[in-house]
């Protein structure tokens, strides 16, 4: 096993700058140089460990990369790892449109050029009431978006996933009610929050296809479905984009989708979660925290909003 | 009825209907040797889904026995009805227990909350209760004691299967192919059970 169960990896009392280089995941690093990560850790001590509890342990890589919701490849959580390799991620282009000064179609390599990747260990909470702890490598979303020079009128940003039925068998299905592409969005101030990243790797490796290669959004205080994968389109808008799950079932999924134990999903209580790995004999259930434990960092984005209404 | 066929049919059904449980036991064995090898990242979910899926399939099978007996004119099947029904009930019960352990950790308050708040749980539990009443009264003794009411009670199978399907419809977020197949089969069975040729013989049950 990659991670020993009893060892707390990241405690609240320990500065992230000290502990990050010692994490077990660092040994598997291929994407980044240790020095760069140390630098990131020093400049963002609060973020590298942001919101992690002393008993949060990394979810093993084998689980992070084999248990995925990526309906473009099938609705079973084992489908993405089986079929996502059929998706070609090179070349990869990103179309930027809407209320920005620099729009057009860009090569992925050009979009990420010059933006240093940072290590971020985040809790990941699915709306289905399971959760993981994942060491991502990601680019601060603000750095990614601001290079396109959004206009003052831009209030939201919309993302779309690749549509390529020939390589994404879930998009060929007759019995799916999803209208591809998968769409997600953020308020621009949410997108500019330092916790928001575009993940390009996990466990020190390039992002596997089933996890959303070549890049995917990662907003750790929101339910997992917000963190859209394999992004090919970025659009700056004045109005809130309609995200896929909200279109599909508006009474179940909202635009904000902030993790909130006090607001139940109609199908699940959100008060607690199954932390993976959960085992046959012990389900490893634990209470869910407001904003997935990142309330200190992000709660002021929503001052004065009724979170039961804007779910 | 051809009495000599029954013991073989019974043996075959026992083996067949135990297979999903055997598979689960095998996977649990793997899991105990090495975590995630048998049941994946979320063993609780895997067990609940496996038992639930087979509960519904076997329930549909139980519902199919009578129409099949008539359509195929295979009288020995008549005795299979109780056996298949009890197997379905066993899978439903295990499904319930697994849900109560993995999802609720035996928290009875949470169970009542789920029951009252989440409609797919409500219909699931109602279906379970109907099947429980049918299972308890499935003996000859109860059949005698209840007289005409026994038949009325056991017409509950219609509701139990329908609620089982509704349970899954409300649970499914996308990917409806399999569910559609079950539903079509259920409708076909309803049609078979209601054709005039068949209703005429219901009295002879």
Give a structural overview:
The complex is a heterodimer of chains A (311) and B (205). Chain A is of the alpha+beta class and 311 residues long. Chain A is built from ten helices and twelve strands. In chain A, strands 3, 4, 7, 8, 9, 11 and 12 form a seven-stranded mixed beta sheet that branches. In chain A, strands 2-1-10-5-6 form a five-stranded mixed beta sheet. Chain A starts with 15 loop residues before the first helix and ends in a 13-residue tail after the last helix. Chain B is mainly α and 205 residues long. Chain B has ten helices and no strands. Chain B has helices at residues 5-33, 43-72, 80-102, 108-117, 119-136, 140-146, 148-154, 156-171, 177-194, 196-202. Chain B is globular. The chains are: A alpha+beta (311), B mainly alpha (205). The interface between A and B is medium-sized, with 34 and 31 residues.
Brief descriptors of the model:
heterodimer; A: 311 residues; alpha+beta; five-stranded mixed beta sheet; 16% helix; 21% strand; B: 205 residues; mainly alpha; 10 helices; 80% helix; 0% strand
Brief overview, please?
Chain A is α+β, with helices and mostly antiparallel strands and 311 residues long. Chain A has helices spanning 16-19, 34-43, 45-48, 61-64, 79-83, 108-112, 141-146, 188-191, 244-248, 295-298; strands at residues 93-98, 104-107, 118-125, 130-140, 156-161, 183-187, 197-202, 205-206, 216-218, 231-237, 272-275, 285-287. Classes of the chains: A alpha+beta (311), B mainly alpha (205).
């Amino acid at each position: 096993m990659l991670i020993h169960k009893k060892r707390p990896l990241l405690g609240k009392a320990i500065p992230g700058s000290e502990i990050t280089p010692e994490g077990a995941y660092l040994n598997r690093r291929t994407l980044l140089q240790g020095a760069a990560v140390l630098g990131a850790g020093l400049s963002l001590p609060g973020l590298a460990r942001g919101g992690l509890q002393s008993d949060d342990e990394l979810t093993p890589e084998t689980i992070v990369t084999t248990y995925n919701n990526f309906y473009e490849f099938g609705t079973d959580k084992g489908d993405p790892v089986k079929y996502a390799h059929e998706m070609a991620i090179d070349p990869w282009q990103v179309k930027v449109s809407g209320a920005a000064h620099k729009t057009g179609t860009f090569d992925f390599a050009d979009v990420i050029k010059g933006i240093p990747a940072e290590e971020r260990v985040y809790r990941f909470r699915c709306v289905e009431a399971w959760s993981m702890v994942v060491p991502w490598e990601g680019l601060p979303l603000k750095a990614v978006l601001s290079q396109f020079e959004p206009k003052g009128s831009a209030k939201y940003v919309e993302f779309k996933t690749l549509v390529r039925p020939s390589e994404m068998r879930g998009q060929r299905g007759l019995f799916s009610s999803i209208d591809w592409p998968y769409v997600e969005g953020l308020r621009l101030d949410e997108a500019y929050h330092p916790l928001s990243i575009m993940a390009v790797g996990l466990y020190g490796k390039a992002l596997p296809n089933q996890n959303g290669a070549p890049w995917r959004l990662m907003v750790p205080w929101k339910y997992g479905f917000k963190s859209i994968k394999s992004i090919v389109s970025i659009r700056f808008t004045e109005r809130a984009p309609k995200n896929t799950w909200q279109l599909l079932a508006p009474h179940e999924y909202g635009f904000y989708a902030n993790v909130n134990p006090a607001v139940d999903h109609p199908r699940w209580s959100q008060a607690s979660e199954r932390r993976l790995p959960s085992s046959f004999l012990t389900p490893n259930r634990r209470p869910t925290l407001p904003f997935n434990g990142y309330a200190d960092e992000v709660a002021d984005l929503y001052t004065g909003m009724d979170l039961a209404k804007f779910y | 009825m051809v009495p000599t066929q029954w013991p073989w049919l019974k043996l075959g059904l026992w083996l067949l209907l135990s297979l999903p449980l055997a598979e689960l036991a095998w996977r649990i064995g793997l899991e105990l040797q090495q975590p995630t090898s048998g049941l994946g990242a979320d063993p609780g979910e895997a067990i609940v889904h496996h038992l639930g899926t087979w509960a519904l399939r076997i329930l549909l099978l139980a519902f199919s026995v009578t129409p099949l007996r008539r359509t195929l004119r295979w009288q020995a099947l008549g005795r299979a009805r109780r056996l298949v029904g009890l197997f379905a009930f066993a899978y439903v019960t295990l499904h319930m227990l697994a849900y109560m352990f993995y999802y609720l950790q035996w928290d009875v308050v949470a169970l009542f909350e789920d029951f009252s708040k989440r409609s797919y749980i409500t219909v699931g539990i109602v279906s379970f209760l109907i099947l429980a009443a049918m299972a308890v009264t499935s003996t000859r003794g109860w059949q005698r004691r209840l007289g005409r009411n026994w038949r009325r009670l056991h017409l509950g199978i219609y509701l139990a299967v329908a609620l089982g399907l509704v349970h899954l419809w409300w649970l499914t977020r996308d990917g409806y192919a399999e569910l559609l197949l079950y539903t079509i089969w259920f409708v076909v069975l309803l049609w078979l059970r209601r054709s005039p040729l068949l209703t005429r013989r219901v009295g002879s049950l």
